[in-house]
């Protein structure tokens, strides 16, 4: 009994720590702090926050404004409930306030660094050793128009959980993502052993931020020109690809991307898989997106032969695109479904049949139930 209670307490503190590092909204961090304190933010939890969360935030990646807001919210809540605020917490807050003016000149206040920690699917409440992957991402701290691609969307969290839950689908495959945004999906694909990861986006500032994120995760690879990338041994590429402008020569499967030879002449092409997270939201872009998907899935149908590696219940020789999406506007989604059907694409909702494990249980702001997972193939 005592062991179970101690494990529970450890798990709550772990979740609080991970939520803070992931830059979860202050209300979510406070909710976890309250839970860890058994209903209130006790001096013990305050010390934990100071030492294990704020104290370990890597220098140079500190989100000073975010940390100051969290401290302020905690102090207000504890004071209001007439509990004790520790001297150390007051001191930390005072120091941060005095540095605030300097910080806002030195730091990018429009971006925040988020450490997204995926728990291992075998996680059983024991310790943080069971964190399988931590992705560090520079994200926009506002959701204003123009920053769409620099924000982290729930669909990419879901698609990442899917990749980490079913690694065999993606390992040894060449994976091509549309509208990659901050690049989280690419980091997960690299982690599960994709043979090649090609991330694309049609927004140049998003692409710049995406490359910065690949560097932050030691995956920096910069190849935009297909001719150059053919010879590149780099595993992750970030490419500009606008769905409106995309032509066949911008797409994999149309390039001679042979990856190896068997015997004298037979070639092996890495099996191509396509992905997208939260890319079905603008009715103006939908027809262009469907055109690109159709080109990808059609062309690969004749050439994307499996190299015979790793069997899996999802493995198929049919070219596949996995798309995670939140249906915010049913009309836009219907427009996608109709355009897909007109182009002879089959769209199957596999959210329940291929449900990923919950690897982000500490992320209270992430509503997994809002995300649908679609499997798109060519009608046979
Ligand atoms: C809502 S964001 C999703 C980003 C990321 N996949 C995620 O889920 O966190 C949509 C992404 O698609 C890109 N995008 C939107 N319209 C596009 C178009 N017409 N061509 C290429 N990329 C586009 C945006 O720049 C943005 O990065």
Name some characteristics of this structure.
single chain, about 375 residues, alpha/beta, Rossmann fold, 11 strands, SAM-dependent_MTases_sf, Methyltransf_16, FAM86 N-terminal domain-containing protein
Explain what this protein looks like in three dimensions.
By secondary structure, the chain is α/β, with parallel strands linked by helices. The protein has helices at 2-21, 26-36, 43-54, 64-80, 87-106, 154-165, 167-170, 184-191, 204-216, 226-231, 286-303, 330-342, and strands at residues 111-119, 131-140, 174-178, 196-201, 236-240, 260-262, 266-268, 272-277, 320-326, 345-349, 371-378. The chain has two domains: 2-107; 144-378, 3-Layer(aba) Sandwich (Rossmann fold), CATH 3.40.50. Helix 1 crosses helix 3. The termini are far apart. Bound molecules: S-adenosylmethionine. Residues 148-149, 152-153, 155-156, 179-182, 201-203, 206, 242-244, 277-279, 285, 288 line the site of S-adenosylmethionine.
């Amino acid at each position: 009994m005592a062991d179970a209670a101690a494990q529970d307490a450890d798990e709550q503190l772990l979740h609080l720590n991970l939520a803070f590092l992931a830059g979860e909204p202050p209300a979510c961090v406070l909710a976890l702090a309250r839970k860890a304190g058994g209903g209130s933010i006790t001096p013990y939890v305050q010390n934990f926050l100071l030492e294990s969360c704020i104290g370990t935030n890597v220098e140079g990646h500190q989100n000073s404004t975010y940390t100051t807001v969290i401290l302020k919210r905690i102090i207000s809540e504890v004071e209001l409930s007439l509990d004790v605020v520790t001297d150390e917490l007051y001191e930390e807050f005072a120091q941060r306030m005095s540095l605030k003016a300097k910080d806002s000149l030195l730091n990018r206040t429009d971006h925040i660094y988020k450490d997204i920690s995926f728990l291992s699917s075998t996680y059983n409440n024991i310790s943080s050793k069971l964190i399988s992957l931590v992705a560090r991402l520079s994200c926009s701290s506002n959701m204003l128009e123009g920053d769409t691609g620099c924000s982290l969307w729930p669909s990419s969290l879901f698609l990442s959980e899917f990749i980490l839950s079913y690694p065999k689908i993606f390992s040894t495959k060449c994976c091509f993502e549309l509208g990659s945004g901050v690049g989280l999906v690419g980091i997960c694909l690299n982690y599960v052993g994709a043979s090649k990861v090609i991330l694309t986006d049609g927004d140049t500032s998003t692409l710049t931020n995406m490359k910065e994120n690949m560097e932050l995760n030691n995956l920096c690879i910069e190849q935009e020109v297909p001719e150059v990338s053919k010879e590149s041994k780099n595993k992750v590429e970030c490419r500009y690809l606008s769905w409106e402008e995309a032509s066949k020569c911008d797409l994999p499967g149309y390039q001679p991307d042979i990856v190896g030879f068997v015997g004298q002449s037979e070639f092996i092409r890495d099996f191509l898989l396509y992905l997208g997270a939260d890319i079905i939201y603008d009715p103006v872009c939908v027809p262009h997106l469907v055109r690109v998907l159709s080109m990808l899935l059609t062309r690969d149908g004749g050439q994307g032969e499996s190299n015979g590696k790793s069997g899996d219940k999802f493995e198929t020789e049919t070219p596949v695109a996995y798309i995670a999406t939140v249906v915010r506007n049913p009309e836009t989604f219907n427009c996608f479904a109709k355009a897909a059907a007109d182009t002879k694409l089959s769209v199957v909702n596999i959210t329940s049949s291929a449900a990923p494990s919950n690897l982000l249980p500490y992320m209270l702001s992430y509503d997994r139930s809002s995300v649908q997972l679609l499997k798109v193939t060519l009608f046979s």
